[in-house]
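Q: Joint fold for the lines below.
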Amino acid sequence: MDNRIAICDPDEDEVNNELFGDIEPVTWVNDDTNYDLDEINMAFHRVDSHQIIYEEKKKKCKLIGKYVMGDLLGEGSYGKVKEMLDSDTLCRRAVKILKKKKLRRIPNGEINVQREIQLLRTLKHKNVIDLVDVLYNDEKEKMYLVMEFCVGGLQDMLESMPHKKFPLWQGHGYFCQLIDGLEYLHSKGIVHKDIKPGNLLLTLDGTLKISDLGVAEALDMFAKDDTCTTGQGSPAFQPPEIANGCETFAGFKVDIWSSGVTLYNITTGEYPFEGDNIYKLYENIGKGEYTIPAEVEDPLKSLLQGMLQKDIDKRFTLQQIRQHPWTICRPPKTLEEVPIPPLRGDEWHTMTVLPYLMEHHYGVDNDPTYYTEHQLNEERKLQEMDRTSGEQKNACNSHYNKHITNHGKRRWRKPTSCISVKKFPSCKPS
Amino acid sequence: MYSRVAGEEGKSSIMYDSSPNSYHGMAHLGTCCSGTGTIHLALHKPTDTMVVVKKFYIDDRTPEDYNLVEREIIVTRQLQHPNVLPYLATFVSGHSVCVVSPPMGFGSCQDLIEEHFPVGLPEVAVAFILKDVLQGLEYIHKRGFVHRAIKASHILISSMGQACLSGMRYACEIVKNGRWQKNIYCFPSSTANNLKWLSPELLLQDLHGYNEKSDIYSLGITICELANGVAPFTGVPATLMLTEKVRGRAPHIIDCKLPKHAEHENTNDGDAGSSNSTLAAIGESILEHFSSRKFSESFHSITVQCLHRDPSNRPSTSQLSSHPFFKQCRKSDETVVDIFKSVPKIGRRDVDSAGDYGVAMSAEQLANLDLQSCHWDF
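A: Joint structure:
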């Protein structure tokens, strides 16, 4: 029994993992299936980590419609996002893979997805993510939302820097594009409700794309104003009226507030409102009292104050933001540009479909690669060490170190959408 | 809206107006832009000169097609060079957008190859054409554009043997926010027809980006297309074409130096040379012709230089213009017109013989008369 080879694929999600939750599925290579259970000693064996051998997953070319599947790009709130290549146009794409089974477990899951698809289909703007194609696999109960390819998001870029902020000129560029995209959405009667750096993605040429319209609301064509009743966005970016639990509120002004928090965040590296838990956070937002760091100078300071107005009527409109001196005047390019951080060590963000195509067309490298649990653990330790030493360095170098030391506060900066997927092992009676 | 003819044949003083009524004839010559537009030969009545009118029927097209047409007009109207096809006038007629350009007597290089030179153009003809194309391309690069669609069908030959570049609808600005970009990253949309000519770095769509050297690679592919009579990677799946280019397997011009074994290589053995991908689309008799001809050393070398995998190793347009390959242009007694003398030129008789088609076109125009035609001014 000890000489079994386990093939375990950290990426694979096909196998039924209903029972094990987030435990990786394991299949046994030389399993004879008809073991006599009585003969097997049911006690736990201690197995040395050197003796657990994994086989590296082969780059097997997989087609979904006309698209060739690539590697994982990230995890959205509903499921995985992978890279794809359109085999006709050779255009890189990203695909959001949604599983019906998972969706059913999320409150409003399926409805939210259908709504997002319907919304995205009607939208076409340079600064709003483009839904290219929707594919269904009824057998596997999967849905594929094929989108424009983005290399990274503002959140990842901020997190890759010690100060967690952009140089003013760079932040200004993103902010202007955010306002362009938002103006378009509002003109279409759509309230995004979840504007935050994590939902602002960048294409290869640096164009900002507002993404994740999962909780967006399309106003009724005949609605006389932008009154909304539900808010599902990320807590730290919510305006006082939502934090205070108002039953109805003006939708567009919610996006203005969130954009204000976003601007505050990307230019200062801090958040206007914090709290050890969501109640404290909402209490602080509800009061609407915040301070702007001393180093923020006037045109920007007055813009932030205008957008982060507790009083909805005093809060800036998009037109006021557009005409604001800080928006109009591009700050000089003084500091070095924050680059898009590498993906799994690849700073160029090379097409991940390429190895699959190579395998498909040339069938190279037929020998499977093996590695042991021990090697894997060593590598993990190394990575962990790298990360912690990096953080320590940051803490020493930066005077913003309260972000790193105070983990309680940090929790609320994570994208915590109320409808995010939680991988709890579901309990089944045996 | 009047405009001046750029360059050709002493017509520079003629002004073309944008009134649909000034143009007559409209013999159908073919379609363009993958079926979006139709090309007609027409007579400009006020000056009694021949012009070509491209008609784009806009209404039943997708917004992307429409944007391409709009873009092509905007970009082309900014350019003025004897080796770049000018748009002399643009106007709206009925449901169509029309652009007027000078007649290019011998048509596109792709038409020439298809109808008259199935085994490719003679070396000296390629040299003459390439010399003109390089002038035009150098100008386009200097004006801050990457063309992104250099191919035989976008090289037109006038009845005087002068080559002009067209197809500006795929071009991309190098200047962004007032800054000259070192690299550009955007992937051209609606480009499925141009994939075979695109450079590996452009196709890879990563943070390396690409620049005007990408056009030099396309030029290399075009040289192969002109010399071989068929574009490399014809009949090859797009994904295989991509991996071949990424692995640095450059196509080449085929002559007697072609290694014999290459013809019998197995396409699956991982060494599927791109010469094979060309050969796959070529018949036995043409192969025989290939093995009996010989191109000059400099012809081979200019092709190899253009198709270098690393863009920084590719020569620029001005460096290419002084390549020894073009020495033969000075020595040659023949001109392009001599070489193409057997090719029937598009001319006035096409208008006269338009016959029924011409009538049909006028009928269509009559039908559109009640619709208010507005001028497309920008």
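Q: Anything notable?
A: The domain at 63-148 of chain A is CATH 3.30.200.20 (Phosphorylase Kinase; domain 1). The radius of gyration of chain A is 24 Å.
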